[in-house]
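Protocol step 4 of 6: structure prediction from sequence.
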Amino acid sequence: MKLIIDTDPGIDDAMAIGYAAADPRIDLIGLTTVFGNVHTPQATRNALRLCDWLGLDIPVASGAVQPRVLPPFPPSHNVHGSEGFGPIPAENAQATAIEEAAPEFLVRMAREHQGALVLCPIGPLTNIAAAIDLDPDFTKRLKACVIMGGSLREGGNINAYAEANIYHDPHAADVVFQAGGNIAMIGLDVTHRTLASRADFDHLANRSPDFGGKLNEMAQSYIDFYETVGKFDGCSLHDPAAVIACIDPDLFAYEPHPLGVVCDGKRSGETCAVLDSRPPVRVATKVDAATLHDQFFETLATLP
């Protein structure tokens, strides 16, 4: 399966990209970067660092630096650390980003791999909306667009209503959800069920000392944050769940719903099922969390 991940790395982004590199069924052919957990230049640097760590020789295209309509948001330093990888300090990568901007790269790849490319956005959807601006049939050219974001019935994680990726650019999300094509939303309804503990990451570090060791270092600080908000059963595998949904969609149950996004007021970023002519989005509502958990760690353990 040919896959591009649109990402704002980010601790759970690093987990997701590591999984994509480790699963032999996935042909990861590029990364595009966006603001969110960090500023876009940091996201690009971190994506390139992940390529170094994972031995990936793939294009990385830098994308949007702020939301489509709203003013910029501060990065999520309290969750992911000031440089995106928890306590791991900043470091320049060996490679550099390609000159082509993320939306143009995405449009070109969708045309070159028409009907065969899966796109997995795991940050704000600004680059995806910009690609639709360039090519209104962009999402229809994809085999699937599997989005980590949103919530149908679970409520929010950045406020009572909104999931963070949608909150950080609700106008972009609203464009994407009505674009048509095979779009799936892997939101908090399922990712809040996919939990990993400190012991899980310690065990991974024993089996995969290099990359698994780095993830363990990141995950411990990530779980520290979860505990500050009263969650003591580990961290959610938000972004890894979306990547796994790309290759193993049958681990999830879905409901088809036309989706809208609230774009202002106190409920800004809320994803809602709407009664209009929008094409339906496949909204994940249930997950085989135990199988996903075991598959995630067993696959990552194959890395050095």
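Step 5 (inspection) to follow. The chain has one domain: 2-300.
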